[in-house]
Amino acid sequence: MTCNRRIFLKRSALLGSAALILPGLRAAIAAPGSSPRKLVLIDLRGGNDGLNMVVPYGVNGGAYYTEFRPSLNVGAGSVLQIGGGCGLNPTMTALKSHFDAGRLAVIPGVSYPDPSFSHEVATEIWATGSLSYDFSEGWLARSLDQFAAPSFPSALDVDESVTTILRGRDAFVPSFTSISQMKYPTDSNHPEDKVARRVAYQAIASGLAAGVGAPATMSTTIGGMLSLIDTLQSVPQYAYAGTYPDHWFAKQMKMVARLLNANLGLDVFHVMLGGWDTHSDQELDGYHSLRLGMLSDTIGAFYTDLVNLGIDDDTVVVVYSEFGRTVYQNGSNGTDHGTVNPVFVLGGAVNGGLIVPHPPLDPNALDEHGELTRSVDFRDVFGTIADRWLGANVAQVFPGYTYGAMNFLP
Question: Strand, helix or coil at 219?
Answer without folding.
Answer: helix
